Amino acid sequence: MISARRVLGRLAYGSRYDRLPVGQRVYVRPGERFARQVQWRWRLRRTPVLSLEEYAATRELGEIEEFLSCMLCGEPRQQPLFEPRGDKGWHYHVVRCPSCGFLYRNPNVRPERLGDLYSSGYSGFLTGAYAANRQRRYQLTMEAFSPVLDQGEGRRLLDFGSGVGLFLELAEQRGFDACGVDLSPDSVERANARLTRARAYHGAPEDVPEIAAGGFDVITLWSVLAHLPRPLDDFQKFRDLLAPGGVLLILTVNARSLQLKAYGSAWSGFTKNHLMFYSSETLPTLLRRTGFAGVAYAPHYGDTIEAGTARMAGPLQWRLRRAVDATDGGNMMRALAFADEEAITRWGDGLKVHRLRRAGLPPVSSVPPAPSAPAGPRDLTDSSEMAT
After folding, report:
1. pLDDT of 384
2. Does residue 296 sit within a domain?
3. What is the 3-state secondary structure (H, E, C) of the chain?
4. Model-level pTM greater than 0.85?
5. Domain that holds residue 51
């Protein structure tokens, strides 16, 4: 059965874009960008805002789940927007914080049960062509923030959520003193089988003395941020693990993606194990509250576009890049967080650094981790300053 969306697309554009991947069409078809922005505003306007009690009364709570207030600002109200579903029977609910705009899964997975998602079999797909594509994505992101990751001699690197060691292998090649941690025992075993100098560990950073001591020049989160159920706690730990002048590199799905606005609950960023969804509007709050001094972004146009392997005419590639730049709407978000002013001075040249002010922000512990807690102070404004 042909969907109504496909029929409308055919009526509006004919068949001229049929050869493009579905995810790229939203960036290049005339008028699409404007239509999706209007569609998003209309969705927000017509969706009710509920108290946490009202919301919880309409949702079932799974065995490993809990209801949450906003992890970034403490707002207990919810705006239910999406209900992603997978072909293997999984489904969940995604809400938006009406105060700060943060998107997150609610109910969410309890931190102590997070390992249930990765206990076995999770590493099976991190091989073959998928692994090669992932390494290419890492390399493109490293190039986007050059020279931060160009040379690793004499520098320590921690890959948090290191999987089967695909990035650690690249870090070895660039001379880093590298190590990683992961919740999947299968992944850790596979990683150590492929690595020579670097080492992967099972568990959390505080479980490994060599990592808990800190002093890292670089920490990387490759497609990991969306998996963290307590981001404030985790980012405080990352900040403490960084050495003076250190940086935190992030690659995650982008909650400002035009594809999210276009496809809603069917967005590719809503995968089974994703818990929270960030954008350049919400990530600064997380970084400010955990002591980082600044953040810079690099646009993501798509792996095939950036690698030069896309089967797309030059004018269409230009149109896609223009749409991403105009909306901050790429499907992935790349960010480089600076631990302190020393890091900005050392690595900020050539990047548009957003300096983060912490004046008036509540301490990390004031954000309620459970629905029974009262609403905490809200960070309603983006107080970042621009510096180049």
Report:
1. 37
2. yes
3. CCCHHHHHHHHHHCCCCCCCCHHHHHHHCCCHHHHHHHHHHHHHHHCCCECHHHHHCCCCCCCCEECCCCCCCCCCCEEEEECCECCCCCECCEEECCCCCCEEECCEECHHHHHHHCCCCHHHHCCHHHHHHHHHHHHHHHHHCCCCCCCCCCCEEEEECCCCCHHHHHHHHCCCEEEEEECCHHHHHHHHHHCCCCEEEECCHHHCHHHHCCCEEEEEEECCHHHCCCHHHHHHHHHHHEEEEEEEEEEEEECCCHHHHHHHHHCCCCCCCCCEEECCCCHHHHHHHCCCCEEEEECCCCHHHHHCCCCCCHHHHHHHHHHHHHHCCCCEEEEEEECCHHHHHHHCCCCCEEECCCCCCCCHHHCCCCCCCCCCCCCCCCCCEEEC
4. yes
5. 33-111
